[in-house]
Amino acid sequence: MQLLDGKKTSQDIQLELADLVKAKVAKGGKSPHLAAVLVGEDGASLTYVNAKVKACERVGFKSSLIKLSQSISEEELLEEIEALNNNSDIDGFIVQLPLPKHIDETKITLAVDPTKDVDGFHPQNVGRMALGLPTFLPATPNGVIELLKRYKIQTEGKNCVVVGRSNIVGSPMSILMSRKGNPGNATVTLVHSRTKNMSEITKEADILIVALGIPEFINADMVKEGAVVIDVGIHRVEDATAKRGFRLKGDVKFEEVSSKCSFITPVPGGVGPMTIASLLMNTYQSVND
């Protein structure tokens, strides 16, 4: 079993981007500018956004954090997004999810200028991805693809099972794994909460990508010997024996499953850092100068 080290791979990508930014600026080009919109005081969201801001600093990007009140109206948030759309100094921006319940996330996603949508969530970018056209790819799925590429994991002709069908991870992941290219060209099955006999399907997977959102859902009995396992989930699970009172767990029972795998991502330190690296890659692409 070999760990797919997302932390180190993300650091490698950030060093590469830092060199590209230095070269661009030395030639009189513009340093990419990423803005992040954070609504409310959700602790996990604040942690994620701060990590993204720090990553921008490491690679030489400009970054702006726009913190808005939990009670902001949908109309006011749409006005903030329109201002970012029209701000020529901002190359790309993200609106951190989840949003407060009184705000329609779909309406917000649709309001983002597709040319600044570095999260890759806008329907125009999703459609271009599905057609294999150049576009901003969703950060987490593209982070997984980059990890597979850098570890030279063979995907062509392999049986890939994606667990979970969210618009953010599962569905785009299934598209990227089945597209022509490398990584890609896999035979993809997408399973979800309504799938019957799920374990029978997951046991046939050469590559198992899990983004279901249930802590330690996948156990050893659901995994084929020698499979590549990508765990997208991350959960705070209470643990009185842990120093912080909790442990971070994925959607996969790591201790059980890792002994059967050829490759597996750890949690933390697997897919999470790759999501940030992918976001930075998209932001670098967003600069038009």
Kindly state the mean pLDDT as a whole number? 95
Low-confidence stretches: none
Shape: globular
The profile of the biggest β sheet is: 6 strands, parallel
CATH topology category name of the largest domain: Rossmann fold
Strand order of the largest sheet: 1-11-8-7-5-6
Sheet-strand content, in percent, reads 15-25%
- The CATH H-level homologous superfamily of the largest domain: NAD(P)-binding Rossmann-like Domain
Counting H and I runs of at least 4 residues, what is the number of helices?
A: 10
How many angstroms separate the termini?
Answer: 45 Å
The level-1 CATH class of the largest domain: Alpha Beta
CATH hierarchy: architecture of the largest domain: 3-Layer(aba) Sandwich
Q: Approximately how much helix is present in the residues? A: 25-40%
Could you say how many structural domains there are in total? 2
Count of DSSP strands: 11
List the secondary-structure elements in sequence, H or E.
EHEHEHEHHHEHEHEEEEHEH
- Strand pairing plus helix content: what structural class? alpha/beta
**Estimated radius of gyration:** 19 Å
Please tell me about this protein's structure:
There is one protein chain. The chain has 289 residues and is an alpha/beta fold. The protein has 2 domains: 27-128, Leucine Dehydrogenase, chain A, domain 1 (Rossmann fold), CATH 3.40.50; 139-272, Rossmann fold (3-Layer(aba) Sandwich), CATH 3.40.50. It has helices at 6-26, 43-59, 74-85, 105-111, 123-130, 139-150, 170-178, 198-202, 254-257, 271-285; strands at 2-3, 33-39, 62-68, 92-95, 159-163, 187-191, 207-210, 228-231, 235-238, 246-249, 263-264. A 6-stranded parallel sheet has the order 1-11-8-7-5-6. It is globular and about 50 Å long. The chain starts with a strand and ends with a helix. The model has no long low-confidence stretch (mean pLDDT 95).
